[in-house]
Every structure is written in C-alpha cells, then in structure tokens.
Design a protein that fits this description.
The chain contains twelve helices and 18 strands. A six-stranded mixed sheet has the order 3-2-7-16-17-18, with no helix packed on it. The longest helix is centred in the N-terminal third of the chain and has 17 residues, at 81-97. The protein has helices spanning 72-78, 81-97, 112-122, 154-167, 194-206, 218-226, 247-256, 275-278, 281-294, 315-324, 329-336, 338-343; strands at 2-5, 8-9, 18-19, 22-26, 29-34, 44-47, 52-55, 57-62, 100-105, 129-132, 171-175, 210-217, 231-238, 259-263, 298-301, 361-364, 378-383, 386-387. A hairpin with a 2-residue loop joins strand 4 (22-26) and strand 5 (29-34). Helix 4 (154-167) packs parallel to helix 5, helix 6 packs parallel to helix 7 and helix 10 runs antiparallel to helix 11.
Length: 389
C-alpha cells in the first residue's frame, strides 16, 4: 500500500479543497481518502509537502501521431509505421509528464494508438491510459484523408465502423465537416449526408461504440446533433464571417445529452491569432456561456500535435485558457478531470480522487482553485498507483 500526502486536494468535483489529505492506494486503485493527518505504520509514504493533489488530467482530444511541427502532414506521410509509432510513444510520454494520465486519441494512422494502448496498460510509465478511435472517418480526399479513414455511402461508412469495432477501437471519430489542416478542405461545409451520418451512429452504437464529430462550424454541429452523435469536438459554432451559437441546436444538445469537447489553449509565445479569429473571441466567450447556461456538458481537449503551439504536453495551458473564456477555476478543473472522464466513457473509474477510482494523480504547486495557473507547475505524477513523474 502507498500513502500520498499533500497540503490540499481537489477531488475532481469540488467546490473547494480538502486540507491535509492522505490518499491510500492499493493495487493501482484508491483504497481510501482521509482528510487531515493519519498515522501510518508499515505503509510507503509519498509526501508531496505544499503541493495540491488533483485527479490526473484527461485530454479528450489529442493526435499523438502528429508531431506539432511546421509540416505535420508532410512529416506524417513521409514516415513509415515504425518511425511513426516511435513518435506516438514520445508524444505520450510528453503528455504524461504534463500530468495527463488519460488521453482520447482522435486520429491516427494504421491504428498505431491501439498498440500504444496495450503498451501503456502494461507499463504506466510508458504513457497515459489511451482511449483510441483509430483513423477518423472522412470522405474521399476529405479532412485528414491521409490518415487512411476514407469511406463514403451508407454501406461504405457502415463497413468502416465495423472495421473499427473488429480492430478494437474504443470509439468512432467522424470528420463531419472539412478542416483547416487539410488543403482543399472546407471547415464550413458538411462532408456527409444525413443518411450517412445516421448510418455511422447506428452502426457504432450497435457495436457499443461512442461517436464523436469533428465540427468547428455551426453547419456541422447542427448535423451531428440531429443525427445522434454522442460528442461534438471543438463545438465553437463558427460561420464563415463570425460566430452563430444557434440556440435551437444548443437546446437540442442539452435535451439529447450531447457533450462538447472544447479544444482550448496553446503554448505561450506563439504568433497572435489571425485577425479573423481574434475578432471572434468576444462572441466565443458569450457563446460558451450560453452552452453552460443551457446545461450542455463541456470537457477539455487540447488538439495537441496539430501546430507548434499545440505541442504534446501543453494541456495545462488549456485549463488556464478556460478561465480566459469565462469559466471559473473549479469549472476548468472539472472539465479536465471528472467531466472529461464522463465524455471519454470512463466515469466511475477516472477523473476523481475517491475510493474505487484508478490511482491516477497529479500534484501541482500552489492552489489551483485560487490561481488556476498553478496547474502549469506539475511537481509529481502518479499513474496506476506508481509515481511516474
């Protein structure tokens, strides 16, 4: 048994901190949480001093196969599978070092993240727990077609979903719209018909798989919600000229229980956002408040790997960014822990510091409830009951 002590603890739900906690860990799970001091005999003790303990961070949207370079597509397509797998492993270790103990990977090539999933299950120090979609479904030459997930027509997309189920994917990711990363792709245009989207959702749910939709734009979000997707990635309700948080769509999301995986945050020091993005930010702040007030569940992803400012290991900057977009520190911490676990299908196992949950912990300097920037100071990481950082 291992006992972990710290100055304070945020349990993933809040609303505040537990003072002077002792977390007892046995066989990779949390056996008990005791507030205040606890005499310990015959137990290994990890005393983290003035740090604050939190549940290990959960990144709901990452791309471990992308290397966050200036030429993500070129470097990926030029790499053979062996080289790419090594990059995936390196990205996973960088995420773990930043306190991310679970990732939901939403786009790889050749199902390489499923191999990583096996490796990190056997060796917690090798990287986070992995939830993997494999190659995302997209149209011919559609967004991220180079990952190998091209499929069209009702029969074609059903077959693609069955392939993912047979390969052991945890969920199905669909490029409902185009995206900026892919030349010739339009992020404001829907790539699939409603019949195709409904077929994907129906086939996935038949096999017990969740579905998630790439959609920055209101057009794509509307189609994803109407056809029954479980989660919408990005979910910023963009239009070609601005932002349109469609209240009817938002109300439908809340009614259906459709969740949102927000991809916020970036490393500091990068170039400022283009003017057409910068002028949308005030409307995004207002729109995200509308989602919150409507009761839409929102978790935090990074979209790490796609740009240099979205490097693997940058996830804590997304937590601080949430407060810039109008969320409280406690709301941001929940989005990175307990709510993220829910979106990943891991509620009851991840995202909380409570008896019976996986012993995935991150310790940070300072008090993140008072100053959320404390999450940038990771001083220790525990995964599966082992200290790995």
């Amino acid at each position: 048994m291992l006992a972990v002590r710290a100055r304070a603890l945020f349990d993933g739900v809040g609303p505040g901190l537990v003072e002077r906690p002792t977390v007892l860990i046995e066989n990779g799970r949390i056996a008990a949480v005791h507030p205040g001091g606890l005499p310990l005999v015959g137990t290994d003790v990890l005393d983290l001093g003035a740090a604050t303990l939190l549940p290990g961070f959960i990144d709901t949207h990452t791309h471990l196969a992308f290397d966050a370079s200036d030429d993500v597509i070129g470097r990926l397509t030029a790499a053979d599978d062996s080289t790419l797998l090594q990059r995936v492993r390196t990205a996973a270790r960088a995420s773990l070092a930043a306190g991310v103990t679970t990732v939901r990977d939403l786009g790889d090539r050749a199902y390489l993240t499923l191999r990583l999933r096996t490796e990190t299950a056997q060796d917690p120090a090798a990287g986070p727990h992995v939830v993997a979609s494999g190659p995302p479904l997209t149209t011919i030459r559609g967004h991220c077609w180079f990952l190998g997930g091209q499929a069209e027509g009702v029969d074609g997309v059903r077959a693609a979903v069955r392939e993912r189920a047979e390969r052991g994917a945890d969920l199905v990711k669909v490029m409902v719209t185009g995206g900026d990363l892919t030349p010739g792709s339009d992020p404001y245009s829907v790539q699939y018909s409603r019949d195709e989207l409904r077929a994907i959702v129906d086939e996935a749910h038949h096999h017990g798989l969740r579905t998630t939709a790439h959609a920055h734009a209101t057009t794509g979000i509307r189609e994803a919600v109407a056809t029954g997707f479980d989660t919408v990635e990005h979910c910023f309700f963009l239009t070609e000229t601005g932002v349109d948080f469609d209240r009817q769509v938002i109300e439908e999301m809340a009614h259906r229980g459709t969740t949102a995986s927000l991809t916020l945050g970036a490393l500091p020091g990068g170039p400022p956002p283009p003017a057409h993005i910068a002028r949308r930010i005030p409307s995004l702040v207002t729109g995200l408040a509308t989602l919150r007030e409507a009761g839409v569940t929102m978790a935090l992803g990074s979209d790490s790997g796609i740009f240099p400012v979205k490097a693997h290991g940058s996830y804590p900057h997304g937590i601080t960014a949430m407060t810039d977009f109008g969320f409280t520190p406690v709301e941001a911490l929940r989005a990175a822990t307990s709510t993220a676990a829910l979106v990943c299908g891991l509620a009851g196992r991840k995202g909380r510091i409570a008896a019976g949950y996986d012993a995935d912990l991150v310790a940070v300097g300072g008090d993140p409830v008072a100053d959320v920037r404390a999450v940038l100071d990771v001083v220790a990481v525990v995964r599966g009951g082992q200290r790995v950082g």
